Amino acid sequence: MENDSFPPPLKIGIAYNLQKGSSSGAEDMEAEYDSFETIKAIREALESAGLRAELLEADSEFIEKVKSAGVDLVFNIAEGTQGRGRESQIPAILSFLGIPFSGSDETTLAVSLDKALAKRYLSTYQITTPHYQYLKNPQARRNASLRFPLIVKPDSEGSGKGITELAVVENEEQLDGVLARNFSLYDEPMLLEEYIPGREFTVGILGNEDRLTVFEPMEICYLQQGIGNRIYSYRIKKNYRHYVKYQCPASLDPELCEFMKKTAKEIYQALECRDFSRIDFRLSEDETLYFIEINPLPGLAPNYSDYPMLAEFCGMDYRTLILSVLNSALVRYGMNPVALNRGDLP
């Protein structure tokens, strides 16, 4: 018999793309997709708050599945399947159907995934970023004003995808080789960026408007020397315990720390991010802060992804983080947040 003292629990759909093994020549082709262990961890966090969770894989049948699921809100971590606007696919569908969802909307995700487009847009806010060039096809050539060393990145990828120990190039010959490889493997435009020697940081943000938390910056400290071991590549992310240590809060001058957090907040708000995001920076040897990229759909793999890791360093456990992201979305839609403390549950 149902207890009429409490409303029925919310039903939360989890939209995701799953790693299934790729036959592509690139080992990182599914780097952005989630393992089932991550999906399970999110589901357990939601269910621990008395919510009902429905798994909704973002495949060709997603529209039918989400329409029939009867969910109150979708907790979105789906990366999409193809194209530079792929992260927008599920949010666009949900917006079209009028179904509430967590995280940034389709426009923010599309602009942010395109690194060159995001940099161009943020430059109007006087956000400092390394000099860069967008190469649309293999016939494009480096602008002579770009100074070596340069770092080569697929323009619309995350999770270190397409970035190897060879990504930093010192001369034209190395550049031609990396570009030929990347265009062949990833079949998308490339971003050339002046490599910034120095320190690397990431800043996590949680919430919206007046309920915004900017976590303390986390520094990625490289354990081995050499440029190939001082970029946050897919290989290093995958085996981070062998290559890096994380320091959070980072050892920074208080004024510089506040400036980094302030800049992260400005970027978050300029791009109209919602609920949660992670912003990456490089700090040059003369202490100039450079924006590198933003991820408004950061990975949530427990004990692996940077976002939950930095949150935990700042005192927020995984369960609380997932429920806080959810609550940010619920409040944004005018819905009641769920209790974070187990003792407060009905």
From TrEMBL:
Q: Which residues form the ATP-grasp domain?
A: 119-327
Instruction: Please list the GO biological process terms of this entry.
Output: cell wall organization; peptidoglycan biosynthetic process; regulation of cell shape
Q: What's an example of a GO molecular-function annotation for this chain? A: ATP binding
Q: Name one Pfam family in it.
A: Dala_Dala_lig_C
Keyword Cell wall biogenesis/degradation recorded: yes
List GO terms (cellular component aspect): cytoplasm
Q: InterPro entries from the xrefs?
A: ATP-grasp (IPR011761), ATP_grasp_subdomain_1 (IPR013815), D-Ala_lig_Van_CS (IPR000291), Dala_Dala_lig_C (IPR011095), PreATP-grasp_dom_sf (IPR016185)
Q: Any transmembrane segments, and where? A: none
Report the domain of life of the source organism: Bacteria
Q: Which top EC class applies here? A: ligase
Which PANTHER family does the record match to this protein? D-ALANINE--D-ALANINE LIGASE, D-ALANINE--D-ALANINE LIGASE B
What's this protein's name?
A: D-alanine--D-alanine ligase
Source species of the chain: Caproicibacter fermentans
Q: Which gene encodes it?
A: ddl_2
